[in-house]
Fold this sequence. Notes:
Elements: H1 10-23, E1 25-30, H2 38-50, E2 57-62, H3 66-79, H4 90-103, E3 107-112, H5 122-126, E4 136-141, E5 157-160, H6 165-177, H7 185-197, H8 202-212, H9 219-236, H10 245-262, H11 264-273, E6 281-282, H12 283-289, H13 295-300, H14 307-323, E7 327-330, E8 335-338, H15 340-348, H16 352-369, H17 378-394, H18 403-418, H19 422-439, H20 445-460, H21 464-480, H22 486-494
Parallel strand pairs: 1-4, 1-5, 2-3, 3-4
Antiparallel strand pairs: 6-8, 7-8
Helix pairs in contact: 1-2, 3-4, 6-7, 6-8, 7-9, 8-10, 9-10, 10-11, 10-15, 11-14, 12-16, 16-17, 16-18, 17-18, 18-19, 18-20, 19-20, 20-21, 21-22
Amino acid sequence: MRNAFFTGRGDELAALHNALNNGGTAAVTQAVSGLGGIGKTALAVEYAHKYVDKYDHRLFCSADSPASLSAGFRAIAEELMLPIPADAKDDDFTNAVKRWLETTPRYLLILDNADFGDNLTPRQLKRFLPGTPKGHVLITTRAQTLHGSLNIPANQVMTLSVMDKDEAVTFLTERVRGKGETLTTDEADAARELAHDLGYLALALEQAAAYIAQPGRTFRNYLNLYRKRSVAQVEKATPETGDYEKTVATTWQISIEEVERVCPASVALLTLSAYLTPDDIPVEIVYAAAQGFIPKLTSFFIGVTNNDEAMERYNDLLEPLTRYSLVVPDRDTFSYSIHRLVQAVIRCEEDYEAQLQQKNTAIRVVNQAFPAPTFDRWLTCHRLLSCALQMYEYSDVKGLRTGDTGLLLSNLAHYFREQGQYVQAEIFCRKSLVIFEEVLAVPNCIMASCITNLALICKIKSEYPQAEKLYKKGLEIQQNIQPTPFADVSVTLNN
Length: 495
């Protein structure tokens, strides 16, 4: 179970418990546009901790896309040690977990951030839901209404809103000074004013409290700083969604500036993370970025000679970001997550050209991290899959179609082909070839490999004339390369 921010709303936890007991499946939604995912996630995770004695198993799965759900169900199957064939595909893992959910009592499964839209539809989510759960399934979402196909009655949907005035001041006081502590009159007034200025938004209050909790800081000083920066922030950048993001952006920007003062390399990583998938960014990305792609990270890892030293340096890099609640690390999976609104704040600071450059850097880093998908590297490929798919989203932009993009998509195509996902493999293969034809003055071995990979997919689909045509095209390229890769030529001839 990953870490989260806690709001401590006992009445909501009790209501959530009743909803789950009534129907087995319940949902937590956000009432305020722009509130983000941490608030509902916090309530779900706090519920799991409060009612720990009610469950034998507590399971967590990101639900922001079918790919995240598939990856999460695979991890759950492995955690539960379910009997899975060695050649199992994603659907096999999903079905095995669903059977377990339909036959095993006393579990809590949290499906987090099921924010319906282009990345996830209710129909896609339903494919992962057990028909008749024996335990409890809790869905968190920003959707204000749930599609009828999910079969979740209205009385099993809890809607979160902002805190009330007293809750917000109590939260700030306890988060900064501790439970049972009181504030001076001036500090209490400043805390009330700050809560008001932040719109009683739990996420913004948490970020402010994380900053104020450091030694030597006060509510009054922070309030003065916040009000000064807030005006400049609103004038400088336009938030992407909702009124609340002005306050959240200001709060985060103050924390980012403090981290920059303490550890510039951590902010360099945070900036890179703004252009990656937000959830479960694996440590491999950090190590790849340190290989000359981001100078501050390269310098930070200078002198590292073994894995233990590298992991210690990685933890040092995340520490200030975690302290200010800018990322949430997962020590068990050697990964971390960044909230989408943090990403939005960082991107708002960049103009179009700077964003283009950052995306190109992200593509190069992910390409460096993503290995050739041989069988012994499948686990690494799977860990990096979400980040790689995010780079695919960038590949439609002209300035981002490069040799690195083509190679990454070619490796993705190879990985999907090895997994038996031929439709996806063909999509990535063809996209990779379009990029290679655009950016390469002379065809190379990688392009030839991509062509023969596409030929093999056509062969598997029994499209033999198209397969033969592609094999001949790949063979011509291979034979013209100096020195000629005779091993590749022989394989293509045999095919």
